[in-house]
């Protein structure tokens, strides 16, 4: 029959050291698990940040491209208006276009 406690102070001290060692080992394992979870969370956060940065860069490229297309369209519209104006002026001076409805 095993006794749960001992009256011998040496045995009690040894049991206390063993219990302390078990608790310390458990605390170290828990700390290691927590560090691993933190490292995994940090890695996920870094990936998420990289994905967000890439999405932001892609959105900025799309915005710049849209602005360039708009600028080109406006430039073409201005050129077309100028060409129509010149054509209108030339036709008004010519007898061939005199009846044209401008």
Number of helices: 1
Q: State the helicity in percent bands.
A: over 70%
Name the average pLDDT. Answer: 89
Q: How large, in whole angstroms, is the Cα Rg? A: 42 Å
**Straight-line distance between termini:** 117 Å
List low-pLDDT spans: none
| Series of secondary-structure elements, N-terminal to C-terminal | H
Describe the structure.
The protein is mostly helical. Helices cover 83% and strands 0% of the residues. It contains 1 helix and no strands. It has one helix at 9-93. The radius of gyration is 42 Å and the shape is rod-shaped. The termini are far apart.
What's this model, at a glance?
The chain is an all-alpha fold and 102 residues long. 83% of the residues lie in helices and 0% in strands.
Sequence-ordered SSE layout with sheet pairings:
Layout: H1 9-93
Keywords:
mainly alpha
């Amino acid at each position: 029959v095993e006794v749960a406690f001992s009256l011998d102070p040496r045995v009690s001290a040894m049991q206390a050291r063993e219990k302390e060692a078990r608790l310390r080992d458990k605390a170290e394992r828990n700390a290691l698990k927590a560090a691993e979870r933190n490292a995994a969370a940090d890695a996920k956060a870094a990936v998420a940040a990289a994905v967000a940065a890439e999405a932001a860069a892609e959105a900025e490229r799309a915005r710049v491209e849209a602005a360039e297309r708009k600028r080109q369209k406006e430039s073409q519209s201005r050129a077309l208006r100028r060409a129509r104006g010149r054509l209108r002026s030339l036709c008004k001076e010519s007898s061939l276009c005199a009846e044209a409805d401008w």
